[in-house]
Amino acid sequence: MMIERKKYLSQLMAKRWNGKVKIITGIRRCGKSFLLSNIYKQALVNEGVSEDCFVEIALDKKKWLKYRNPNELYDYVSAHTNDPRKRYYVFIDEIQLSYKVKNTDMDDNLVPEEDRDLLYTTFYDVLNDLMERENLDVYVTGSNSKMLSRDIVTNFRDRGSEIKVYPLSLSEFYGFAGLEKVDALEQYLQYGGMPLAVLEKDEKLKRKYLIDLHKNVYQKDIVERYKLKDDVVLSALVDAMASAVGSLTNPHKLASTAGSLLGASTSDNTIKNYLDYLEDAFLFQSAKRWNVKGRKYFDKIQKYYAVDLGLRNAKLNWRQTERSHLLENLIYNELVGCGYQVDVGIVEVDKIINGKRDRGQYEIDFVVNTNVGKVYIQSALNIDTPEKKAQETFSLRNTGDFYRKIVVLDGSSLPCADEDGVIYTGIIPFLLGGVMEELVEEG
After folding, report:
1. pLDDT at 153 over 60
2. What is the pTM of this model?
3. 434 — phi, psi (to 5°)?
4. Beta bridge partners of residue 287, listed in sequence order
């Protein structure tokens, strides 16, 4: 049975023949290749596109190794798209594996130091050339955000169009799994949404797949890509981050935690570099702190969330599955997966304590930026006492504005509002009943 990725398919269909290279990014094994070469291709074939109008190259497969050379890649595509009467779809998988090649017809001595990159041909040169051809529609996938996302602007300017693909969302998983909503939530919190993990029915094999995927694909890939001596520090850092999803942190704090796990110290600068590597590989995403009243970002301290809960749990061997952390991580993933920019909110409030004015900082889990304004969301297991309710909503009630305020609770309770307009809803209707889109979009 094929898992439909309707949201991404609709984005691809809407962007075809727009004169831009479509750059499909996301964590490895989240289904980018399947989306492009199976789901999207089948949709085009169903519309009448002939099989001989597709040119498909997978640079992570042995058969296509020689085409990691951008010159060879260019020649291959040119040779297979030479009928001017046809319109071709060009799919290049894992484009970041293409390496740069020195141009032999250029004199190094004539090129100043600051322009040395111009001595090389890269896949950017190939793609920019292919985009100029009116009978080609070009698509690439990649698993390195730094290489691809950053260079969409610098190398493609307004000629690149990025589509970010994530592991299966809870709603995608639910639509496929054939479970009751409550059971789907529990399964998803444990094993996440990596497609092959979802398709595996045997629980032991599911766990083994996720553990091996994290160790032998992601960590190994980072070690090789950035030429690290080993993965010891990286592994300790991932353990520290996975244990503290949803907690405010910074490189210094993570260096201390990772050092404790290692039994040896490591520098803040090393940890900062490794954090960048982990984000570049899409294993974690960071959320900046936003001063709600001051309307500015705080520096240095931020939160990190695992892109997939199953991979996060696998790294910790399912030892730390605190429900509050998992639910918060899940809500964050669902929001960013819908394309929202999400920050961590901080509300500064003055209180008089023992006759002295004290300024405290109170957190709002998520500040969601939408086309119609901001929406504040607090994640809480429950508000079963007046004290707990006051604690969870204090920051929401002190924002000094009238943006929509939502508390997402564990369970299936339907949306309701209190006398101050704060909305309370269970996570199941929020994520599986269409409530998120309704409340956030109308915020």
Report:
1. no
2. 0.92
3. 80, 5
4. 303
